[in-house]
Input
Amino acid sequence: MKVPASIEALLSGPQYKWVVIGLLFFAGFLNLEDRVVIFSVLPLIRKELHLSDLQLGALMSTFLWVYAACSPFAGYAGDRLPRRRVVIACLFLWSLVTIWAGLVTTGGQLMATRVVLAVAQAFYVPASMAILADCHDESTRGRAVAILASGMTLGPILGGGAAGWIGDHYGWRPSVIILGVLGILLSAVFLLLLKNVEVGSSDRGKRAPSAPAAGFADTMRVLLSIPSYVSIIIALGVFSLATWMLVTWLPVFLHDSFGMSLAQSGLFGNFSISGPTLIGLLLGGVISDRLGRESPRNRLILMLGCYSLAMPWPVLFRYADGALLVLASAFMFKLFRALAEVNSYPLIYALVPPEKRSTAMGVSNSLNTIFGGAGALVIGYFRESFGFQSLFGLVPLLIAVAVAGLLMTLAVFLRRDLGRVSNVPGVAA
Output
């Protein structure tokens, strides 16, 4: 197929790296929304398919377990196969599965779609984040990460509201099928606009040449031998645990403790989580690139500072006696988390060789999912005995451990670990 001259100019111009981020923004939007759309119309699905509360809970938990188990291997596939093909293939496949979910007639069939969806989607984040690093160097990685992550944040906000409205008027199936069709159309756009980007092309001249492809076990051994990488993904996991506590239980807490309606608790609860995340990502991306482009060390300092500023808010949340203070505490906690974490992925890119970045992102994605699921489960198990506020108020203890690990990384490991992958004279570590 002949590519129009205008598109050819776009693909070969210096701004193409932002075209890639635009494509990944929309794919990320669908990635998250296709994952959670059924929960926007869950009452309708429960009634039509005659599902129990246990079956409803299993729809998400099964997805998380399969997704976490597949993510490291899916990440490795993004290092061994052309990343463009991995992204396009998984986008097309998960969109087909989403259409399938809109056509099911039994709970068992719906559960099967969740399993296949988890496998397909596990390939997206590692490969897409690795493509981002191949296109963007240290000067723009913070903003690129912020834009990509914003798409994944906006998916449940905008898509969930639209799915709910469509469900109220036309039933639950149309919104699910429409999302799947949009994904297939987007995969066609990807075929046209997404080029093969050479692995490590944005780092050329700044670090040692890529090593030959290694087996999965050898790749994991290399990643786990980088203390700075390990401490960063553990810190990400701790904050994922806290975030899933809020995402899963904050609306319920607002409804039960302050007499809010379901509409009010859903609106205010989700706004206090998603609103600050968007603000923190976009603002943090600019700050990260402004201060961190000279040295990855500056990004770690920013990450440490913002994580430390996030620490007091769960304590305030624990002792809050009104809905406004609860929401303000959640808002500030999520704001500082987002400001911190927009630095984490550029740091991982700097620490991990280009040919292992997809695997590195897959391992981090898996750990985030495991920690997040554990956070939601802990609240569910102990909420009646200790209360949601008391349990969330213990989060700073975990944050303190994560911050201590990052401080040790800054003081002891970071410079050495950066030197392992960047031994080109004159490159700052």
